[in-house]
Amino acid sequence: MFSKRKKGISWLLLGVLVLMLGVTGCGGEKPAASTGSDQTITIKVGHVLAPDHPYTIGLKKFGELVEQKTQGKVKVEVFHSSQLGNERDMIEALQLGTQQMALVSTAPLASFTKEFLVFDLPFIFNDSQSAHKVLDGEIGQGILNSLESQGIIGLSYWENGFRHVTNNTRPINKPEDLKGLKIRLMENPIHMDTFRTMGADPTPMAFGELFTALQQGTIDGQENPIPIIWTSKFYEVQKQLSLTGHFYAAAPLLVSKTFFDGLAPEYQNAIKEASIEARDYERDLIAQQETEFLGKLKDQGVNVIEVDKSLFKEAVKPVYSKYEGEIGKDLIDKVISAQQ
Ligand code: EAX
C-alpha cells in the first residue's frame, strides 16, 4: 500500500518525533537537575567546630556518599570553624537560600521555632541510645518536619553529645559550686535558666568567640561534650572538668528548602540517604572520641571530676516546672516514656 517514498517519510517523521521527545523531556523524565543535567551542583555545608571534630569528618563522608549516589553530579564542600558564620547566621542563610546546608546543635534553633525546646531540657535523655531512639522515631522526625515552615528541611539528627562543665576557678563537685561563676552557654532560654537556677551567671555567646573569652578570662567556664573540649583545645585554658552530662546536644543536619526543592527527585533521595548513612558514621565517631579523649584530657593536666548527677538533677527540677506550659507536659512525658 505504501510507496517506498511514503514509508521513508513516515520513518523520518517518527525519528524527528522521538528526537523531540528525548530533547525536551516530554517523554516524562525530569531533567537531571534544575540547573541542567550536564552541570555539576555544589553544596556548601558549614559548621562551627574544629577541622578534626566528627562534624567535619562526618560531613566529608556525607559528601563522598552524595557524589557516589549522583555519579559525581552533586559535590559537597565542607566549611568548618565558623567559616560561613555562627550557627544563628547559618540558619538564617538557609532560610534565605544563600547557603545550602548547615550542621548545628538544636539549641540555637530555639530562636526560630519552639518545637525543639523539649530536647534542650536538662537530663531529658538517659543516654545516647535512648536519645537516638526518640530522635530517629516519630517524635523526633515530627519535630524535624516542623522546620519546613521556617524554610528549612531537617534531614537527620547527628550527634554533638552530652555536655559537661569546665572552668578555671574551682572544682565543681555539686551545683552550689557553680555559684557566681560566669559560664558561657548557647543562645537558648532553657540552657540559660538551668544554670541560673544552679546559681551561675549565664552568658550567651557564639561558639566562635568562646576560646578567646576563656583565654582572656572574660568568662570563667563553659559547657560542651568531650570531643569539642579536646578538638577545640579548651584544655589549654580550662583545668577543671566536671562530668555533669546535664544537656544532650542533638545536631540536626539542615538543608535550605529553596535549594532542596529545586533539585531533581533522584538528587533529593541521594542526599536523604547519605544524610542517614553519614549520621550513623558520625555518631560512632562521637562515641569513640568520648572514650579516647577523656584520657588525653587527663594527660593534659585537666582535673576530671565524676560528680553525683542526682544532685544536679534535683537542682534543675524548677526548669521543668517553668517550661512545662510552653513545651507541653504531654510532649515531655512522651519523650521520657519513649525511652523506657
Ligand atoms: O553545635 O555552641 C556550642 O557550644 C555547640 O556545641 C556548637 O555550636 C556545636
UniProtKB/TrEMBL annotation:
The keyword Signal applies. The keyword Signal applies. Transmembrane segments: none annotated. One of its GO terms (molecular function) is carbohydrate binding. It comes from the Bacteria. This is Tripartite ATP-independent periplasmic transporter solute receptor, DctP family. PANTHER family: 2,3-DIKETO-L-GULONATE-BINDING PERIPLASMIC PROTEIN YIAO, PTHR33376. One of its GO terms (biological process) is transmembrane transport. SUPFAM superfamilies: Periplasmic binding protein-like II (SSF53850). Keywords: Coiled coil, Receptor, Signal. Residues 264-291 form a coiled coil. InterPro entries: DctP_fam, TRAP_DctP, TRAP_DctP_sf. PROSITE patterns: PROKAR_LIPOPROTEIN (PS51257). It comes from Desulfosporosinus orientis (strain ATCC 19365 / DSM 765 / NCIMB 8382 / VKM B-1628 / Singapore I) (Desulfotomaculum orientis). NCBIfam families: dctP, TRAP_S1. Pfam families: DctP. GO terms for cellular component: outer membrane-bounded periplasmic space.
